[in-house]
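Encode chain A's predicted structure.
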Amino acid sequence: MVFWWPILVIVFALAICRFLLMLIPPNVSSIDVDVSDVLDDGSQTKEESYIYIPRRGKAVQLDRVQCYEPATMKYLGFFPALTTDEVKEHVAHARKAQKVWGTSSFKQRRQFLRILLKYIVEHQHLICE
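Encoded structure for chain A:
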């Protein structure tokens, strides 16, 4: 009887593993994303650059926003500033997208998140740069 107990535990563990593997989809779709806007375009500075604190009285730039990495305060470059109308347009677009997302089923959301996860795993080197 002592001999059968470890075998029974191993068989039970294998059965659980097979069941869990059945839950993983065999094929996940892929997405292609244009990354030309995040590749080095010359606006980024050297690797050792850090935040620049402007002098008092210096004019504020209204047409662009300086971007910094929050963890290291490394300077990343500039991003064009949006006007009030552009912000309202973006908010309206986001609200419309939320309505579509809200009507989607759990199965559709799960499939989308799996596609997104696959993309993140495959492109983590680009995302982490």
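The CA atoms of residues 81 and 90 lie 13 Å apart.
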